[in-house]
Write a structure and sequence with these properties.
Blueprint: E1 27-29, H1 40-49, H2 62-72, E2 79-82, H3 84-96, E3 103-106, H4 112-119, E4 124-127, E5 146-150, H5 162-170, E6 177-180, E7 201-206, E8 219-223, H6 225-238, H7 245-256, H8 258-281, E9 285-286, E10 293-297, H9 303-312, E11 315-319, E12 329-332, H10 336-353
Parallel strand pairs: 1-11, 3-4, 3-5, 5-6, 6-7
Antiparallel strand pairs: 2-8, 7-8, 9-10, 10-12, 11-12
Helix pairs in contact: 1-7, 2-7, 3-4, 3-6, 8-10
The protein binds pyridoxal-5'-phosphate.
Pyridoxal-5'-phosphate binds next to helix 3.
Length: 354
C-alpha cells in the first residue's frame, strides 16, 4: 500500500477471482466458465463491429434490450445492460443500501457481496445457512435491509424454488430483494416472471456462464421500470458506456442463435449429473446442484489436499479457505472428456491415500 492510498480503503480486502493461468496447460474447472466456445457468428459480428470502434457505444443497448425483452417476456424499460452482472450487483448496492438500510445475505454465498458492501462503506448482515447449507427462508422474513440472494447459490449449487423466493419478496414489502440468477439456466426456476407483481424485486443475470461469454463482460438487471431508472442514475454517474461496442455486437449475435446456448446448457447438465454419480461412487458427498458446478467433499481427503493434488496433475478446481466450507471444493462442469480426466485423476489420488 502506498502512503497515498485513501484512508477510507485502508482495510478493504479485495475480491480474489479464481486463477487464470496464462498458459493453456491446465484443465480449467475453477471459475465456472462454459467449456463450449461461442459460435463463429459471434466472432464475425465482433469483427464487423470493430470497424466502428472510433465511435462511442450505445449507452442504452437498444438492440440488445429489444431482443432480450422478447426472450424474457418483459419490456425494454424493465431491462438494464451492464459490464458483467458484477456491475449491476454493485449498482444495486449503491442504489438500494445505505447506513440505515444494510445489505443482507447468506454467510456462504458469492464472495463479492461483502466486497461491494465494503467498498461502498455499507453495513451488512450475514445470515448463516442451515447445517446442510440450505437457506431457511424464514430467516429472511421482515428484514430491515436490502436482501441479496444468489439463486442457485454459489458455491453451494443449491437452488430455492420460485415460490420460496416469492415468499421472501412478499415478506419484505418495504425493502428490495435482489435475486442473482447467474446460474439459473442450469435447471433452476427464474424469478423474472414475478417482476410485474412485485415492485421490490430485482433479478440479475449474466452471459458469462450459460452463454459462453465470460470474457466479453455482459450482464443485466431485470425489474420494475422505476428501479431500473434508479440503477440508470447510478450507471450514468459512473460509466455511461459500460457495455462496449464489441460486447454489444457479440451479445446480439449470441442471442440470435440462442438455441446453441440452450443445447449446451442441456449437455452441461447431463455431464454434471453423470459426474455427480461417478463422484458419489468414489465416496464423495455433495449438494444437489442446479448449476454448472458441483460442491463436493470426501471423508478421506481434505478439500485443500484434493485441490493441490489435482493442480499437480494439471487440473484446476476451486478451493475456499473459509472455515465452514473448507472441506469442500467447487468443481466446474467441463466437457465430458475433461470430466473423465478429472475422475481418473481423483481415482489415482484416492488410491494413493489408501
Ligand atoms: C459468476 C457470478 C456472477 C457474475 O459474473 P459476471 O461475469 O460478472 O456476470 C454473479 N453472481 C454469481 C453468484 C456468480 O457466480
Amino acid at each position: 500500500m502506498s502512503r497515498f492510498f485513501s484512508e477510507k480503503y485502508k482495510n478493504l480486502v479485495a475480491y480474489v477471482p479464481g486463477e487464470q493461468p496464462r498458459d493453456q496447460k491446465y484443465i480449467k474447472l475453477n471459475t465456472n466458465e462454459n467449456p463450449y466456445p461461442p459460435l463463429p457468428e459471434v466472432a464475425e459480428a465482433v469483427r464487423a463491429e470493430s470497424e466502428k470502434l472510433y465511435l462511442y457505444s450505445d449507452t442504452e443497448c437498444v438492440e440488445l434490450r429489444k431482443i432480450l425483452a422478447e426472450r424474457l417476456n418483459v419490456s425494454a424499460e424493465e431491462l438494464l445492460m451492464t459490464n458483467g452482472s458484477d456491475e449491476i450487483l454493485n449498482f444495486a448496492f449503491m442504489a438500494f443500501c445505505d447506513s440505515k438500510t444494510p445489505a443482507v445475505f447468506a454467510d456462504v454465498t458469492y464472495g463479492f457481496y461483502p466486497v461491494f458492501a465494503d467498498i461502498n462503506m455499507l453495513p451488512y448482515e450475514e445470515i448463516p445457512l442451515k447445517e446442510d447449507l440450505t437457506i431457511d427462508i424464514t430467516d429472511y422474513f421482515g428484514k430491515n435491509g436490502t436482501i441479496f440472494i444468489a439463486n442457485p447459490n454459489a458455491p453451494t449449487a443449491i437452488a430455492l424454488g420460485r415460490d420460496e423466493i416469492e415468499e421472501i419478496v412478499k415478506r419484505n414489502p418495504g425493502n428490495i430483494v435482489v435475486v442473482d440468477e447467474a446460474y439459473v439456466d442450469f435447471g433452476a426456476e427464474s424469478c423474472v416472471p414475478l417482476i410485474r407483481k412485485y415492485d421490490n424485486l430485482l433479478v440479475t443475470q449474466t452471459f458469462s456462464k450459460s452463454r459462453s461469454m465470460a470474457g466479453a463482460r455482459l450482464g443485466m438487471g431485470i425489474g420494475n421500470p422505476e428501479l431500473i431508472r434508479d440503477l440508470n442514475t447510478v450507471k450514468y454517474s459512473l460509466n455511461p458506456y459500460n457495455v462496449n461496442r464489441l460486447t454489444h455486437a457479440a451479445g446480439v449475435a449470441c442471442l440470435k442463435k440462442d438455441e446453441y446456448n440452450i443445447r449446451n446448457c442441456g449437455i452441461i447438465m447431463e455431464t454434471r449429473d453423470r459426474t455427480a454419480k461417478a463422484l458419489r461412487d468414489l465416496g464423495f458427498e455433495m449438494t444437489e446442484s442446479r448449476t454448472n458446478f458441483l460442491f463436493a467433499r470426501h471423508p478421506a481427503v481434505s478439500g485443500e489436499e484434493l485441490y493441490l493434488e489435482l493442480k499437480k496433475r494439471g487440473i484446476l478446481i476451486r478451493h475456499f479457505s473459509k472455515e465452514r466450507i473448507r472441506d469442500y471444493n467447487r468443481i466446474t462442469i467441463g466437457t465430458p472428456e475433461q470430466m473423465d480426466a478429472l475422475i481418473a485423476n481423483i481415482k489415482d489420488i484416492l488410491e494413493e491415500k489408501k
